[in-house]
Specification:
With 373 residues, the protein is α/β, with parallel strands linked by helices. It folds into 2 domains: 189 residues, Rossmann fold (3-Layer(aba) Sandwich); 172 residues, Glycogen Phosphorylase B (Rossmann fold). The longest helix has 17 residues.
Length: 373
C-alpha cells in the first residue's frame, strides 16, 4: 500500500508518538510505501528525520512552518497527493484536516482521521467558538472513516451531531518496559531530589489544557503539608515562562524543571508516580508508558483517563477537589509499601489491555478496507 500520514501540529506529544508507533510497524517493510508530512522545523519533524532517514520505504516531507503560508501549503499538499496517488491518507489533528480537505477538493482521495482529544476546551463559548465547532464537525464528516482513541471522545462527537460511523481504537504502545533497581532509583533521586523523597514526575506540554495551573496548585499545597514530596517537570509550552516565574516567586524548592526531554525512559522508571492534572485528554500515551515500567499514575478524572486508570492501578481525582489528591499524595508518602500494589497492577493492566499488537492490527485492517472502497 501507498500510505500518507499527515500531522501538522507544532508541538510534540501523544499524537506524534502514536504516528511513530505506526511508522515503526512499517519500518523496512518494502511492500508498503510510507510518506509523512509534518510542519518543517518543528520538534516532531526533527525527530522523524533523525529516526527514519535511513528507512528506504519511509519518506519525511515538511510543509512551510508559517501561518502566512497556509495557501502555499494547501497547493503543495494538493500537488503531492495528485502525484503520489495514495491508497490511504491518515489525517491527525483539526489543522491537518482543514488543510487536507481544501487540498483534496475535486480529487476525491479516501481518508481516515484519528481524533485524539476534544478540541473545544480552549474555545470561548461565543459565536466564533460555535462556528469553529460546527466547522470541525463538517470537516470530520468529509473523511471516509473516523477513529476515536477513547469512548468519551466518540460520545462527545455523537452529541455534536457527527453523522458518520465512528470506530474506537484505543492507543497501544511498545512500552518502555524498563524496571529500575533500588540502587538505580537511589542514585537518580540523589541527583534530582532527595534519596528518601516521594518523587512525582509530570511529562507533557505546559499549557492550560494539560492542567498546568492545577499542577502549580498541587505543588504549592503539598509543599506546605509534606516536605518529603518532590516533583520533576518535563516539557515546554506557552505557559513555561509563567510556570518558571511562579516557582521562583513562591520559592518552591520541591520542584525541578527539566524542559523537553526526548528520552523519557531516562527519567520515568525512577520515579514513584506519574502525575497528570489535565483538563482534557484522550488516551494519554504517557500514562501507558508509565504503566509499562510499573509506574502508577495520579490523574484527573477527565476524557479517556478513567478508561485506563482505576483505584487498583493508580489514583483518580477531580480537578475541582485538589485537597483530596493532596491527602492521597501525603498518604502514599507515609505508606510507601502500598504503592507496590499499584505498581504491580499497572504493569499487569498494560500488558493485558494496552499492548501495541492489537492497536497496529486494527489500523492495518482499516487501511486494507479503506483501500478497497
Amino acid at each position: 500500500m501507498n500510505i500518507l500520514y499527515l500531522s501538522l501540529g507544532r508541538e510534540y506529544g501523544g499524537t506524534e508518538k502514536v504516528i511513530e508507533n505506526l511508522l515503526d510497524s512499517f519500518k523496512n517493510d518494502l511492500k508498503n510505501k510510507i510518506t509523512v508530512v509534518a510542519m518543517n522545523n518543528t520538534r516532531f519533524f526533527q525527530v522523524l528525520k533523525l529516526k527514519y532517514s535511513n528507512n528506504s520505504n519511509i519518506e519525511i516531507l515538511g510543509l512551510l512552518n508559517s501561518n502566512k503560508k497556509i495557501i502555499r501549503n494547501i497547493f503543495l499538499l494538493r500537488n503531492l497527493i495528485k502525484f503520489k496517488k495514495f491508497d490511504v491518507i491518515h489525517v491527525h489533528s483539526i489543522v491537518s484536516n482543514l488543510i487536507f480537505q481544501l487540498a483534496n477538493i475535486r480529487l476525491g482521495n479516501k481518508s481516515i482521521i484519528t481524533v485524539h482529544s476534544r478540541s473545544d476546551f480552549d474555545r470561548k463559548r461565543n459565536i466564533k467558538g460555535i462556528l469553529m465547532n460546527n466547522l470541525e464537525i463538517f470537516l470530520l464528516n468529509r473523511n471516509t472513516e473516523i477513529v476515536c482513541v477513547s469512548n468519551s471522545i466518540k460520545e462527545y462527537l455523537l452529541e455534536k451531531g457527527l453523522s458518520k460511523n465512528i470506530e474506537v481504537i484505543h492507543n497501544g504502545i511498545y512500552g518502555i518496559n524498563q524496571k529500575a533497581s533500588h540502587l538505580q532509583i537511589e542514585k537518580f533521586k540523589v541527583k534530582y531530589s532527595k534519596v528518601d523523597s516521594l518523587l512525582l514526575i509530570y511529562i507533557g506540554r505546559l499549557t492550560e489544557v494539560k492542567g498546568i495551573y492545577n499542577l502549580i496548585s498541587i505543588i504549592k499545597k503539598i509543599s506546605k503539608k509534606n516536605k518529603n514530596v518532590d516533583f520533576l517537570v518535563l516539557g515546554e509550552g506557552e505557559l513555561k515562562l509563567m510556570f518558571d516565574e511562579e516557582i521562583e516567586k513562591k520559592q518552591l524548592k520541591n520542584v525541578k524543571l527539566l524542559g523537553f526531554q526526548n528520552q523519557i525512559k531516562d527519567y520515568l522508571p525512577y520515579c514513584d508516580f506519574l502525575i497528570m492534572p489535565s483538563n482534557m485528554e484522550g488516551i494519554p500515551i504517557t500514562i501507558l508508558e508509565a504503566m509499562s515500567c510499573s509506574i502508577p499514575c495520579i490523574a484527573s478524572n477527565v476524557g479517556g483517563i478513567p478508561e485506563i486508570i482505576n483505584e487498583k492501578n493508580g489514583v483518580l481525582y477531580n480537578n475541582n477537589n485538589l485537597d483530596y489528591i493532596i491527602e492521597k499524595i501525603d498518604y502514599y508518602e507515609k505508606n510507601r509499601k502500598l504503592i507496590d500494589n499499584l505498581k504491580n497492577q499497572a504493569y499487569k493492566d498494560f500488558n493485558e489491555k494496552w499492548n501495541i499488537n492489537k492497536f497496529i492490527q486494527k489500523y492495518k485492517e482499516r487501511y486494507i478496507l479503506l483501500s478497497k472502497k
